[in-house]
Amino acid sequence: MTSLITPAQRSQLAQELPDWRMVEGRDAIHRQFVFNDFSEAFAFMTRIALHAEKNNHHPEWSNVWNRVDITLSTHDVGGLSERDLELARYINIVFERF
Ligand code: H2B
What we know:
4 strands, binds ligand H2B
């Protein structure tokens, strides 16, 4: 069963995922990614989409040409869970490869 992250995990967030920011007004994190062009941005999204579908945990995201905005939150628990942190770590690793 998924549950909200603990206060201890929450206080570690800025250190563990420094490029991700809390979204104002909700329990969610956001990061923007910028690529050389649309092809790169879409390839990045494809990698994440396959992972998300496999794990049944999906990002809220938008893409404009070379830019991808991603917000993570667990809808089933109404806020941040370990599943979001896992997905954020995965996304960071994929991004490093571009
Ligand atoms: N993604 C996210 N981010 N949060 C969820 O709670 C969630 C999901 N739940 N993907 C899954 C799908 C759920 O809606 C389906 C019915 O399993």
